[in-house]
Write a structure and sequence with these properties.
globular; 7-stranded mixed β-sheet; Four Helix Bundle (Hemerythrin (Met), subunit A); 18 strands; homodimer; 363 residues; 4-stranded mixed β-sheet; 2 domains
Chain lengths: 363, 363
Amino acid sequence: MDVHGNPYRSIRLSQDDRQVEIIDQTRLPHEFVVVRLSTLDQAVEAICDMQVRGAPLIGATAAYGFCLGLLENAEDKSLRVIADTLIRCRPTAVNLRWAVQRMLTVLLPLSPSERVAAAYEEAAAICEEDVAANKDIGKHGGGLLREIWEKKGKSAPVNILTHCNAGWLATVDWGTALAPVFRAHMDSIPVHVWVDETRPRNQGAHLTAWELVSAGIDHHLIVDNAGGHLMQHGQVDICIVGTDRTAASGDVCNKIGTYLKALAAFDNQVPFYVALPGSTIDWQVSDGVGEIPIEERAPDEVLQVQGLHERQLVQVGIAPANTPAANPAFDVTPARLVTGLITERGICSASRAGLLSLYPEKG
Amino acid sequence: MDVHGNPYRSIRLSQDDRQVEIIDQTRLPHEFVVVRLSTLDQAVEAICDMQVRGAPLIGATAAYGFCLGLLENAEDKSLRVIADTLIRCRPTAVNLRWAVQRMLTVLLPLSPSERVAAAYEEAAAICEEDVAANKDIGKHGGGLLREIWEKKGKSAPVNILTHCNAGWLATVDWGTALAPVFRAHMDSIPVHVWVDETRPRNQGAHLTAWELVSAGIDHHLIVDNAGGHLMQHGQVDICIVGTDRTAASGDVCNKIGTYLKALAAFDNQVPFYVALPGSTIDWQVSDGVGEIPIEERAPDEVLQVQGLHERQLVQVGIAPANTPAANPAFDVTPARLVTGLITERGICSASRAGLLSLYPEKG
């Protein structure tokens, strides 16, 4: 997508075709900074510190991190070390494991001398497939928005509520939950987005709002508490969120707070959709609430808020000195609350049967 | 309650028996500052700027604001001006209107020369009644906590989730939702409180956490997004919140986001209680969602966060420069999601019949 009129992706190779360039997402929306990764450690750090985040982008960064690791050592033993180092970064996002597994499958049969070239090729393929998948998610989800617009007599914008950032910054390009919004906007369907700020890290305020401002799409920032009230009063036509891991049963693990919005949508008959590429589905998990590990992140993310003060990016403390905090980073929305899953292959019900209708090869 | 070992109330007369002292709640938990109000305008400002907040404390401040207004002019015409000026401050809290109405009822029949003394007497009565009511709420709600503790075999603390601040700072003393927690703690029942930070103004992080630290009560601060996940995983035994206005039907208007927690409690069979003094009941309203006006506050409360940076209280911007925000301050939780109402007269179901069983004089 465009930034100041220049087309960008959230990750790309630098001109030497070896190093990897990412956007430091911890500094948005206040500073737009491109960071160059030269080593596996730097890639791991970028994932852990959330300079990159979003399940698909974590997968893509892990793939390129694998390449950088191989530049240091491409022996068999090294492959396992690289894989383990990457997988440890973030326990919830399934794309990380998926991308690392895919790299291993391609690289293990090759001789060490062939591995670097093959790894870069595979990482590039992962990125291209992600862009294509998200573009298709945009097409299918955009159809939903068009239907709502037509049902409203084309008289008013379609009001979409989203949580966290599942825009192009969370993927390689296009995004998942925001792809339908970008698609609709390009097709001249009027849209308005309610952006959950998404505490503790405020990816909604920092990233989703920034993407929408950059694209010239109408939106309002709201606190995470506000969505239920808006739905009670008919101000939300549809919710669309992303996901870090989708259980084969259709349970959806996404940023903490998603479950609360799904409950409110269900209570007010507002359609609640989850947008995801197939790589986000964990076919091994059938009980999302019971089985998906939920990352507990540092209490400081709750106790502190980052923002701009006198043109400086600073952290401010919001709690008394002796108050401890708990910080579960994700929650699981049971399939019964999900109207449908928007995938690159089409839209299906949030159920094993629904998913298998689109991915029959997993049956 | 005690602050640094000294007993405090959130509002009291200063030594001259004329001016009124409040705690500037916008500066907590970082600074404890007592502010003196000498005029009606200062009282109005304290309410509008939320130096005082919480339905019962707003009522008490309005009563004393009335007194300060009478010091300037106690003629009949002045009474109406004072009343209108106060009622305009905050549209949602019913106690404001209730307190002003009560002052008018007492003062209108009197001659101007009698009014100042009678007004101070009535304001003091409102405060004393509030303290007594909240103490009784603590007794009744404390009983609930004791039951849960006994049901758990006295083996683990009772986990209470609360939203916003309905502690002693929201009332004259004791609090509403926190009164049962203080009561249980005094009675040596082990309690642990999950404190919703409560964006946008973070009354949970600023005030509830501060009250609990001051009282030595175990707690964790969480983001507003986290409660549903905790309830899914059995980490919440009971939710208790306050209310700014309770419809005669049992619908409850409280700080934005309360409805989402009630939905999660209902979905996970966690008891959801609302604590309130009778003065918070609006006997005229039967449909809370449709009838209660919801205050829309300034977008800056969403776009900015207040906190401590290098020992200075500062505001930081969290959104892109061109992002607008919407800021509804309250929402309504339908009675069907509320397990019970804890009042000064006992606990009842959230329904007209339940309320009338405790307040038969309103039938």
